[in-house]
Amino acid sequence: MAQHTFRVNGEAVTVDVADDVRLLWVLRDVLGITGPKYGCGINVCKACTSHINGKAFNPCSVQVQDVGPDDEITTIEGLPDTVGADLHPMQEAWLERDVAQCGYCQPGQIMAAVALVRKVRAEGRQITDDDLDGIRNVCRCGTYNRIREAVRDGAARM
Fold it and tell me: Name one Pfam family in it (predicted).
């Protein structure tokens, strides 16, 4: 075992796990952060989407040894703190658009949407249909139309 230190949702954490343990299991099983969901474990379904240093990533595909002490991991649990509110504007849009059915993929969907809005804004432009098509998170319930509406609504609130 080895010690690994990094930041999660604004707090420094140190875990004692093998270097090759996937970050998803560290978050869920060691730290008790269950927002990032296990779906496929191979970076396809994107149910575990979180942010590392403000960018979307999938902790199921990252070994804990690849995360350093200066890296900031943000999960759905920490997303509201990034705006100093009870809910992030994207979460509010999700609720108002009644996106979730089973809800399993929603934390990852929201995290992907927030990262996309930030990226597009940094480029000085608005969300396009092509941008929305680029969100590859799988929703087994098929609420894609409501997801698209919520992303646009959330983007307007951010």
Answer: Fer2_2
